[in-house]
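Input (structure):
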């Protein structure tokens, strides 16, 4: 497995003032270890950026706008009055005495990325098929690692 950092979502180009304010909030909220996060999304092309911890290379995965919002909200620990879908998943797992362990981007088939959310119940780990964006949204909410299968190493760009 390739360990990755979730750098953030690509949404729209930020002005210099917006970028400086976003980095200041990230430093304050998440600490200096997350300083490299970027909040930049074209609404017509939302994506999540993952950075290979070992090489620093990037993997960008196109995702839906709701998932981009969910990942961004999770990264920024934004609270909402009622559970969002990915909060519900965590609540459901807790009700079943299960906890998320990690999200994994497993493969690329015909331009589509596949993923798994690995959950633990007792001594057993179970890999549940999911879209990578959904697995990542749960992972950032519950503070579990995100990984990419080694077979996708060639998909990372400098």
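Output (sequence):
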């Amino acid at each position: 497995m390739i360990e990755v950092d979730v750098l953030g979502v690509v949404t729209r180009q930020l002005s210099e003032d917006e970028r400086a304010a976003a980095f200041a909030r990230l430093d304050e909220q998440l600490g200096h270890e997350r300083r490299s996060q970027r909040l930049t999304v074209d609404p017509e092309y939302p994506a999540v950026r993952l950075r290979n911890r070992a090489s620093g290379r990037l993997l960008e995965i196109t995702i839906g706008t709701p998932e981009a919002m969910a990942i961004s909200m999770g990264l920024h620990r934004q609270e909402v009055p009622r559970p969002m879908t990915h909060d519900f998943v965590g609540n459901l797992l807790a009700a079943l005495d299960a906890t998320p362990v990690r999200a994994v981007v497993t493969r690329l088939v015909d331009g589509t990325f596949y993923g798994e959310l690995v959950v633990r119940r007792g001594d057993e780990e179970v890999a549940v098929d999911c879209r990578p964006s959904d697995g990542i949204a749960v992972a950032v909410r519950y503070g579990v690692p995100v990984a990419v299968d080694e077979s996708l190493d060639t998909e990372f760009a400098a």
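Notes: Residues 34-42 have pLDDT under 50 and may be disordered. The radius of gyration is 15 Å.
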